[in-house]
Amino acid sequence: MTMIRGRHEDRQGPPPEVEGDIRELVRRDVAQLRKAPPEGGSELGVSNLNSLIQRVSGTSVLEIEKLIAELQTLRDYLQNEGQRVQREISEYAHMSQAATKSTKIIAESLAHWKQSAEGNRTRG
Fold first, then answer.
1. Measured distance CA(110)–CA(99) in Å, rounded
2. Among residues 4, 28, 22, 27, which one has the least CA distance to residue 62?
3. How far apart are CA 110 and CA 71, in angstroms?
4. In whole angstroms, what is the distance from residue 42 CA to residue 49 CA?
5. Residues near 22 by Cβ (< 8 Å), separated by ≥ 6?
6. What is the full DSSP assignment across 77-116?
7. What's the pLDDT score for residue 87?
8. More confident: 78 or 19
9. Residue range 65-77, pLDDT digits in tens
10. Angle formed by the axes of helices 41-123 and 17-35, to 10°?
11. Which residues contact 55 (CB under 8 A, 6 or more apart)?
12. Residues 6 or more apart from 2 whose CB is under 8 A from it?
């Protein structure tokens, strides 16, 4: 119990609503177990305890399942975004290569025209 309190005290603000609900549920059920007559024997106590554990763990399991679903959705989103970014980078690289080739062709053509023009000047 001290370890749980110590970790909880480190947090700022009130405890999460789920934790409060679980605490209230446990307090209520423990109080009922204490008030129950001992003649029911251990079977009634075990049954009540099992019921309490199922209710407490049920809430936690639902929260964990929600978190797993959210994380799976985020994973899918990140994978899709990663693929989209890779496609865009590939397209950019292709466009950059095409622009480089075009620039070389233009530069070679200009050099050829320049040589032709200089040749015509020296002849004429």
1. 16
2. 22
3. 58
4. 10
5. 56, 59, 60
6. HHHHHHHHHHHHHHHHHHHHHHHHHHHHHHHHHHHHHHHH
7. 97
8. 78
9. 999 999 999 999 9
10. 170
11. 25, 29
12. none
Q: What are phi and psi of 13, to 5 degrees?
A: 85, 180
Distance CA 53, CA 42 (A): 16
Residues found in the chain: 124
- Is the pLDDT at 79 greater than 90? The verdict is yes
Q: Copy the structure tokens of residue 2.
A: 């001290």
The 10s digit of each residue's pLDDT in 85-120 is: 999 999 999 999 999 999 999 999 999 898 888 877
